[in-house]
Amino acid sequence: MKYLPRFVDSVIAEFFAEVPAILIAGPRASGKTTSARQMAKTTLQLDRSDQAAAARADVDLALNADEPLLIDEWQFVPEILGAVKRSVDADSTPSRFLLTGSAAADLGPAGWAMTGRILKVNMWGITERELNGQVSKVSLIDVLFGGNAGQVAKPSDAPDLRGYLERSLRGMLPQLVFGARIEFVSVRWRLTLTR
After folding, report:
1. Residue 101: phi, psi to the nearest 5?
2. Which of 43, 138, 143, 167 has the fewest Cβ atoms within 10 Å of its own Cβ atom?
3. For residue 137, which of 152, 147, 122, 123 has the smallest C-alpha distance?
4. What backbone phi and psi angles, to 5 degrees, belong to 79?
5. Is the distance from CB of 53 to CB of 82 less than 8 angstroms?
């Protein structure tokens, strides 16, 4: 499947050009790893037992890979943060490390060493504009705050009620959007007025 650009990609790229390490945080299955892979040359997958064991054996050696290096699911080997710190202290060249992990794996106490060395960027679920390939288009909010409310028009492909319900049931996680097809069961609306 072809990569679908996300709004956060440009934010990550802009900051990654300035700093040596970025942590992409967000809900599980929101697309963090997929987006980070677009910018990485090498991936260290710490949710794979063989790669996690090798990293635990020598965390500094585990970083000896072509950069930018994506350290995926870093929370499986939290001591990797110390190795990233040491590497960044020795060489603060931008665009070296991308770290991703589950929503529960915030840096917390294990990440104190990363203070001032890593930039955290939040990623959320996929949006309708991303799904429609409209990442580069100006958003409704930008138009309204730009004082151009007269330019707002109803989209030609606006969904009907059924379409809105299907989209809301589908959710915002890429796996759900692209993986399973949700069968829509008709919903009957009943309004009861009480006097």
Report:
1. -165, 170
2. 138
3. 152
4. -65, -10
5. no
The pTM assigned to this predicted structure is: 0.74
**Cα torsion for 79, 117, 66, 64, to the nearest 10°?**
-40
Of 127, 21, 34, nearest to 68 (Cα)?
A: 21
Asked whether the beta carbons of 21 and 99 are under 8 A apart, the reply is: yes
The CA distance from 57 to 181, in Å, is 43
Q: Which residues of the chain have pLDDT under 50?
A: 180-195
- Taking CA atoms, 35 is separated from 51, 73, 101, 102, 162, in Å, by 21, 14, 13, 14, 31
By residue count, the chain amounts to 195
